[in-house]
Amino acid sequence: MVLELKAVEKILPIHAAQLLTYLRLGGFALGLLVNFNVRKLVDGIERVSNDAPSLSASPASSAFQDRSP
């Protein structure tokens, strides 16, 4: 995962394109574009995907299941 941090007035398409380039060159599947120049941080987060076909998201609840034999 690549984390791109910004402090700009507004996230522009060029910012997502830049992150996508980093993902492709590094062979990463996912990246987060985080803009700190917003009132609520959650409003400044954008998820960017490299469209990797091998990705599969598991439900969050599966992380807490007992996996003992």
In summary, what is this structure?
With 69 residues, this protein is an alpha+beta fold. The chain has one helix spanning 13-26; strands at residues 2-6, 30-35, 45-49. Strand 1, helix 1 (13-26) and strand 2 (30-35) form a beta-alpha-beta unit.
**Uncertain segments:** 55-67
**Number of separate domains:** 1
Whole-number mean pLDDT: 82
Number of helices: 1
Going by helix content, strand content and strand pairing, the class is alpha+beta
Residues in β-strands, percent: 15-25%
Percentage of residues in helical conformation: 10-25%
User: How is the largest sheet built, in terms of strand order?
Assistant: 1-2-3
Overall geometry comes to elongated
Q: How many beta-strand elements?
A: 3
End-to-end distance? 31 Å
Query: What profile does the largest beta sheet have?
Result: 3 strands, mixed
Q: Give the ordered list of helices and strands.
A: EHEE
Structural Rg: 15 Å
How is this structure best described in words?
By secondary structure, the protein is of the alpha+beta class. The protein has one domain (2-51). It is built from one helix and three strands. A three-stranded mixed beta sheet has the order 1-2-3.
Task: Offer a few descriptive terms.
disordered C terminus, 69 residues, three-stranded mixed sheet, alpha+beta, elongated, 20% helix
SSE topology sketch:
Layout lengths: L1 E5 L6 H14 L3 E6 L9 E5 L20
Parallel strand pairs: 1-2
Antiparallel strand pairs: 2-3
